[in-house]
Amino acid sequence: MDVIHSVAALRERLQREPNNVFVPTMGNLHDGHIQLVRLAKPRAACTVVSIFVNRLQFGPREDFDRYPRTLQADCEKCRSAGADVVFAPDEREIYPEPQTFVVEPSALQHVLDGAVRPGHFRGVATVVLKLFNMVRPHAALFGKKDYQQYIVLRDMVRQLALPIEIIPAETVRAPDGLALSSRNSYLSGSERAEAPQLHAVLMRARARVLAGELHGRIERESHDELSARGWQPEYLAVRRQSDLQPATAADRRLVVLAAARLGRTRLIDNVEVELP
Predict the structure, then answer these.
(1) CB under 8 Å to 171, separation ≥6 — which residues?
(2) How far apart are CA 36 and CA 251, in angstroms?
(3) 101 near 19, Cβ under 8 Å?
(4) Is 33 one of the catalytic residues?
(5) Which CA distances in Å does 100 have to 91, 103, 104, 107, 155?
């Protein structure tokens, strides 16, 4: 496995591997990331993993400075999973000058996570497009835990006619149901014991959607349930899978999404719903 830090060296290395598949990450890798690498392996001759903490997608009071950087351990995990290339640039390599050209996503960037984190999806789309231009993959994998991110990037690729297949992967969970996330390391012992309740509340909401209850009522009462447990919910919403717009009675493929703070840690999760 090659660990590469510059765009020039990456392009030189990939000239020998025109058929590659890509897994973009911000590092501090967990089993969810490693599952993406394993799913990527059979799809191309070369599997590329990027590790880059992207300042553009963090707000001014968010955790950019304290986000875990664990490059050596990440590289070992990638090697064990069978990655061929790890691209681990520093900030000057990705942004050698101020990034004045940006990708402006659709109005989807302003709802749900985007409403709470203004500019987040602009930063995500901009860095991912740059990484796509550096790696030039024919496919890229993204976990469904970041459901809105997956939809934004899928739409970006389609509307900009990029020759890349966006492949969503199911959320990897701990045995107690907690979605694996790099930010789970922020949780205290007592918070870690409580954290699976986010998924539990979503599963109860999913059952109520299947039972035909009104979405607004489900959203309000699930939000209140989290609050009563000591969480600080930012949103809990029932939406269409295709575009994350509010669902109508005719929609059959839905998703229930939530973001909430537990102590100082912000967690997100979602569950899909397929109505008969």
Answers:
(1) 32, 143, 144, 145, 179, 180, 269, 270
(2) 29
(3) no
(4) yes
(5) 15, 10, 12, 20, 22
**pLDDT tier for residue 111 given thresholds of 50, 70 and 90:** very high
pLDDT computed for residue 61 by the predictor = 85
Opening angle at CA 206, ends 38 and 143, nearest 5: 20
Domain 2-169, CATH among 3.90.1200.10, 3.20.20.370, 3.40.50.620, 3.30.70.20 = 3.40.50.620
Asked if CATH classification 3.30.1300.10 holds for the domain at 182-270, the reply, yes or no, is yes
Q: Which of 30, 33, 138, 199 is catalytic?
A: 33
Whole-number mean pLDDT of the chain?
A: 96
Structure tokens, 192: 């870690």
3-state SS assignment for residue 83: coil
Checking if the pLDDT of 37 tops 90, the result is yes
